Amino acid sequence: SSNPTTFEEAMKTIAELPRILKEKGENAVPIKVWLTPLKTLGYGGAELVKDISVDSLRRIEDTLEALKEMKERCNDSLDEVVVKHFPQIKHYLQNFQKLCSDKISDFQRTLKRVLPSIREGRADESSLNNVFDDLDKSPYNLGNLSKCLDYIEREINIITSFLGRMEGIKIVQNKSELDRAVLATGVNHAFCFVFTGLKNADLNLDAMANEDPWYYLDDTLDHMKKVTDFFMDLYRAYKNSTQLCFLVAAIQHQNYKGATIYQYKEGRMITDNFSKPKIRDPRTIKKRSHFLWNTANNYLTLSEDNKKATCGTWQTYPDHPQRFDGHTQVLCKQPLTGRHYWEVEWSAGYMPSDVRIAVAYKEIGRKGRMNDLELGCNKISWYFDMFYKRLVAYHDNKVRMVFSLTRLGRVGVYLDWPAGTLSFYDASSNSDKLVHLYTFETKFSESVYPGFYIYYPSNYVFLSINCKNTWRQDLTAEVYSIMCCTLLYVYYM
């Protein structure tokens, strides 16, 4: 083994000598150990005149240990996955890490200057107290540094928890990367969840002491949960879309506490605070524009080159367990909850005419011609019907409303699933005007599916859009894939 070079190593070696010599006595030789004052060796060591109190030594040790512990905590935080995604946090921690290293070096240099003076008797031990007083008065004292690290660890934990709810969504690290994502070829619409509270990398401990961090404010966290839920509703509805892009970023924004949603169209920001609109009473809606919520998630509409269902001669279709084989009706594939609006054009010039616009639960029967398999003739479906120039609202085999109307070419349908309402409007006007016709009130227990019943040759329905608002037209392909493809499953008479 190597020769001891420190006092501690020398004392340990002396303590081990009896055991070593007993085992190998033939190798024993006389030995002396010299403890030489540092002053004699010329290394600047002080000649001991006055010892330093145990309390002062313990305080020195505690201070160094506290600084080293914070540095280790900082190193651990730098290894967190979330830190690798957000440069603001990474740079902040790196600055904190450097600050801890600098404080340790400064403290050690001060001790190297003060301690020898005390040991030689040239300075009183109170000078050491002055060192601690200066450290305590500094904005970078141990208390503030520990508080700062507590804050950043809390911020990391909060962001990690929210990212856990947004698993699978791409995180962009800066504005340049965000621009590339929203400008990518084929992306017409983009929604970006933005953490707005992340600060820059500067360590301003004075400012930190006088503010309430967003990650400790209950109202801010509650708001962020609502924004996250709304954002994830959008994501789940359109995650398979090639035209919509969903992102997560951290961009400081003083106007919105905690989080907001940026909306982009064709690379251009539409709003920096995209949110769920306040829902109106369906009976008070008078215009199509009342449904324009700047999101396709709340609408089911189609382009004018639509899919059309027409009652006519028998068609040969392959057998399918979901096909209605006794009634001329169809359900769309997409289950709906939440709030949605769509429009339907239907035939109105044949007698007798029977065209129904409906929603139903998935378990409605498909096989046979029993009356309770028709849309509206059971507890699990609701329809709005045109029959012999009369408009009828029907549910559970009961008529809810009947009145005559000369002409109704287009019907607007508004489903407010959470509120338990299904409303119908006269949407025939070429303007934005809507006229409320009827509202079912119920409590939906599961998802509903839009459906249609078309009876008598040449009667038809098709989902349509007649709207000048270009953003709705841009989403035609999305709605087409959701709503229209299942019209091929109509059983024609």
UniProtKB/TrEMBL annotation:
It comes from the Eukaryota. InterPro entries: B30.2/SPRY (IPR001870), B30.2/SPRY_sf (IPR043136), ConA-like_dom_sf (IPR013320), Cytolytic_pore-forming_toxin (IPR052090), PRY (IPR006574), SPRY_dom (IPR003877), Stonustoxin-like_helical (IPR048997), Thioredoxin_11 (IPR040581). Its main location: secreted. SUPFAM superfamilies: Concanavalin A-like lectins/glucanases (SSF49899). Keywords: Cytolysis, Hemolysis, Secreted, Toxin. The keyword Cell cycle does not apply. Pfam families: PRY, SPRY, Stonustoxin_helical, Thioredoxin_11. GO terms for cellular component: extracellular region. One of its GO terms (biological process) is killing of cells of another organism. Belongs to the SNTX/VTX toxin family. GO terms for molecular function: toxin activity. It is found in: Secreted. It comes from Neolamprologus brichardi. SMART domains: PRY, SPRY. Gene3D superfamilies: 2.60.120.920. Residues 269-470 form the B30.2/SPRY domain. This is B30.2/SPRY domain-containing protein. The keyword Secreted applies. PANTHER family: AIG1-TYPE G DOMAIN-CONTAINING PROTEIN (PTHR31594), SI:CH211-281L24.3 (PTHR31594:SF16).
